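Data availability (excerpt). The following record was deposited with the supplementary files.
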Amino acid sequence: MNLADLVRSLAAYTRAWREQAARSLKEEGCTDLSYRPSSGMSSVGWLLAHQAAVYDFTLNVLIKGESPEKPDLFSKYTPGTGGDWADTPLEEIDAYYDSTERAFLAWSAEASTEELSRVLEGTEIPEYFRGMRIIDVIANAFVHLNHHNGHLSAIKGDWCMRE
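Predicted structure:
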């Protein structure tokens, strides 16, 4: 097994959890992307779009040092945006997730050992990521994606307990 196989596996299980959580919410009648649980955590739509932004940020901004693939969506669903759904249709959110995941997987299939060992440096890199190797950035991305899959699962519990 090589890194590309591992990344494909991580992406597949991350997607499966995301789709299961979204399907479970829909089956319970929670189809309102603006729904925010009583705990105040982010809305369903924000979480789904934010996950696409995680792939976009990790690959395009951090690894490649470029602009996000979808700057308009990216800016609505990055950390620090209040967690509100910004009226983006689910189909557009899903297309953004699909395209950023696909690009991330394509990049990882071609990444060299040297690239994976490269350390992020420079003032344009957010402080949290400075000094991280690319391989660590990839690990962080999947932790982050699955952290938000957990939020989607928690929202179902909140939805089912509302009056």
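Summary of structural features: DSSP finds six helices and no strands in the chain.
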